[in-house]
Design goal:
Elements lengths: L9 H5 L6 H11 L19 H31 L10 H36 L1 H9 L18 H18 L1 H29 L13 H14 L4 H22 L4 H6 L1 H19 L26 E5 L11 E5 L12 E2 L5 E5 L4 E9 L28 E4 L5 E7 L18 E4 L2 E9 L3 E8 L2 E11 L2 E9 L4 E8 L2 E9 L9 H4 L3 E4 L13 H5 L8 H4 L4 E2 L15 E2 L4 H6 L1 H6 L4 E4 L3 E3 L7 E7 L6 H13 L3 E4 L11 H4 L1
Parallel strand pairs: 15-18, 16-17, 18-21
Antiparallel strand pairs: 1-4, 2-5, 3-4, 5-7, 6-7, 8-9, 9-12, 10-11, 10-13, 11-12, 13-14, 19-20
Helix pairs in contact: 3-4, 5-6, 6-11, 7-8, 7-9, 9-11
Length: 665
């Protein structure tokens, strides 16, 4: 909490608006579980020096301290993670600690949480079974639960029974379900307790003990508050609670009958098994008709994956035997901007995870985002890969292609048959048909490594096409035809035979390449890293960085300026490390470029932006001050033109940076 103070702001306490009453009520019912446990002190009340004084005061003071602590911890997490707190469903406090205290802080918080939860469970295992023991002593539960260990003087049967029931419930119920049921059950007890206070006060009981001022007002308000929380209990949850109460009531009534006590004592193991089985069936019903697996993610704030649509491409992930527990899976790929939240997968009864998405026929790169992390190689992974399928994570993939980070993305073939090459050609697309160098350039795209050859057929004459290039999941085949060709057919050869496309008609005015481009010698320049010609503008790179607009949890390391041209490369090299390259540096080196034979300069974005690469534009009408001014740009253009050089600017209109004025507005 103390380390998060620099992240605090008024927006944490005032922003975001209020949730609906239904959402607030359901969340409060689940959150109530975090405040339970104080009533366990009554189970050991007989060992207190003055139980009537100490327990009420301890509950009030302890409760106030717990509320204050929870509020401070939540403010800390909200301040550090911001909106990311809602999607951080694994260990949000650990994630916040990692931001403000680093990896060591995260490890300490996780270790402390483990110790705390272990202590809570250990204490509960010793305290709560005493309620079973006391009921057994009073004759309300089987006498076996009243047995005391001859050496340790502990109610060992009650402890073992309680532990077995708790483990069984944990195995089949999941946290969210059991926490809700526990909260609802305790709230019913609290409601009855408030009602009992009214009755006992009328009888005059408790005058010598602890009495809260206000008479009947406090218990009445307590009953209203409890009722407000209980209205959020679902019908299935009420059914579970009602069934358990009914079983307990029947058991209690039978115990009061003189003739049945002995038989019930003998049948205690069977009754315990019946109660455990009933809890399993009821918990299964509340969970949606099937018992969740041991690895099921029941975190209440996790988004519920949408039900798969009837059509669309089916992605399937089947964890291999012996794999770690799978808590969440999402499909991220070229079809959704590699978003890890746009397409969550749903767990199936057989343990696999699936998601459907409508996609146009073609090939797409993708990866499964498993437990919040990327697998390195979709076609060879020792953790998530299928041993029977050469360690492929998704055996249905067509193959894999490099992901640019030393691993591989999987390739999905949508609407692709085993012999389909996915040939694509459109005469109106300049990438497929254009006039260049006095010839008609014809290209066809096919799925990577699926076509064995291609040809253009004109008037019965076949002209072979050459594989011009391969990029990611496609190959591009090219041939040139004489100007004046009216129509043509494209023939693609593959393992299953031949696929023909067309005939195609050449448009009346096909796209014609700019004449000077084909014969130019091009040189692409990344301005920030080319040459520093004016150190007076070096500081602007850091000052106009996107860092200033980012939330603290997203910032990472701050931008850095390195004055030495051959200085060290830091983790911010992409894209917040600046060396001072600018337009004046290009002007200074035009002689060198001309000596190389360069006749065309291609400049990466030079507009005001928030990074070293410039593709996150803030203002399309302003030269980035780190590169210079419009006067320097004019000087560059004039100097280049005087040397016979053309200049092309990289203009990116389809996305902007975080500092873009309308976006900030």
């Amino acid at each position: 909490v103390a380390a998060s103070v620099p992240y605090w702001s008024v927006a944490v306490f005032t922003g975001g608006g209020l949730p609906s009453a239904a959402v607030l009520g359901k969340a409060s019912l689940l959150l109530f579980f975090a405040f339970t446990g104080v009533e366990a002190s009554l189970a050991t009340g007989a060992e207190f020096r003055d139980v009537r004084r100490d327990v009420p005061r301890g509950i009030l003071l302890g409760g106030a301290g717990i509320v204050a602590t929870y509020l401070l911890v939540h403010v800390a997490a909200q301040s550090v993670l911001g909106a990311g707190l809602a999607t951080e469903t694994g260990a949000p406090l650990a994630a916040a600690a990692a931001v403000v205290l680093g990896a060591v802080g995260r490890s300490l918080l996780l270790a402390g949480g483990g110790v705390s939860m272990g202590a809570a469970v250990a204490g509960d295992m010793l305290a709560t079974p005493r309620a079973l023991f006391a009921n057994a002593v009073d004759g309300h539960l089987p006498a076996a639960l009243a047995r005391v260990h001859p050496r340790f003087a502990t109610p060992w049967v009650a402890i073992v029974t309680y532990g077995a029931l708790s483990c069984g419930a944990a195995l089949v119920g999941g946290f969210a379900l059991l926490a809700t049921l526990a909260s609802a059950g305790l709230l019913v007890v609290y409601f009855a307790t408030c009602a009992a206070v009214l009755v006992e006060r009328r009888r005059g009981a408790g005058r010598e003990g602890f009495r809260i001022p206000g008479g009947a007002l406090v218990p009445v308000l307590g009953m209203v508050a409890v009722g407000g929380l209980l209205v959020n209990v679902t019908a299935r949850e009420w059914l579970s609670l009602g069934a358990l109460v009914a079983v307990a009531t029947v058991f209690y009534l039978l115990r009061r009958r003189g003739g049945g006590a002995g038989r019930l004592v003998l049948a205690a193991p069977a009754l315990s098994a019946l109660l455990g089985g009933l809890l399993l069936v009821l918990a299964t019903g509340c969970a949606g008709g099937r018992p969740p697996t041991l690895t099921e993610d029941t975190t209440p704030t996790a988004p519920t994956p949408p039900a798969p649509v009837a059509d669309g491409f089916l992605f399937t992930f089947a964890p291999p035997p012996g794999a770690p527990a799978v808590l969440s899976v999402a499909v991220a790929g070229s079809f959704n901007g590699w978003s890890t939240s746009a397409l969550p997968m749903a767990r199936q009864p057989d343990g696999s995870w699936t998601a459907r998405l409508r996609l146009n026929p073609g090939q797409y790169e993708y990866k499964f985002h498993i437990n919040g992390a990327w697998p390195g190689d979709m076609c060879e992974d020792r953790t998530w890969g299928n041993p029977a399928k050469q360690q492929w994570i998704d055996p249905q993939a067509l193959g894999c292609t490099p992901d640019g980070y030393g691993g591989q993305n999987a390739v999905a073939g949508v609407g692709v048959a085993a012999t389909d090459v996915g040939a694509v050609h459109a005469p109106t697309n300049p990438a497929h048909l254009s006039v260049a160098g006095g010839r008609l350039s014809v290209r066809v795209a096919t799925f990577a490594n699926r076509a064995q050859g291609a040809a253009v057929v004109v008037g019965g004459q076949r002209m072979p096409m050459q594989r011009q290039l391969g990029y990611r999941v496609y190959d591009l085949w090219r041939a040139s035809l004489p100007i004046g060709t009216a129509s043509y057919v494209i023939s693609v050869q593959h393992a299953g035979g031949t696929q023909e496309l067309g005939p195609f008609t050449v448009p009346a005015a096909p796209f014609t390449a700019v004449p000077w481009v084909g014969g130019a010698v091009g040189y692409q320049i990344f301005p920030e890293r080319f040459w520093n010609g004016d150190r007076g503008n070096d500081r602007f790179g850091v000052e106009t960085s996107e860092y200033q607009f980012l939330h603290p949890v997203l910032r990472g390391a701050p931008p850095v300026y390195v004055p030495e041209w051959n200085g060290p490369i830091y983790q911010q090299h992409c894209c917040q490390q600046y060396f001072g390259g600018d337009l004046q540096g290009i002007v200074d080196k035009l002689g060198h470029l001309q000596a190389l034979g360069v006749t065309l300069l291609y400049l990466n974005p030079i507009w005001l932006a928030g990074s070293a690469h410039g593709y996150d534009t803030w203002d399309y009408q302003q030269v980035d001050p780190a590169f210079g001014t419009e006067a320097v740009l004019r000087r560059l253009l004039d100097a280049a033109h005087s040397r016979g050089m053309k200049v092309i600017w990289d203009f990116v209109p389809n996305h902007v940076g975080i500092g873009f004025g309308p976006f900030q507005d």
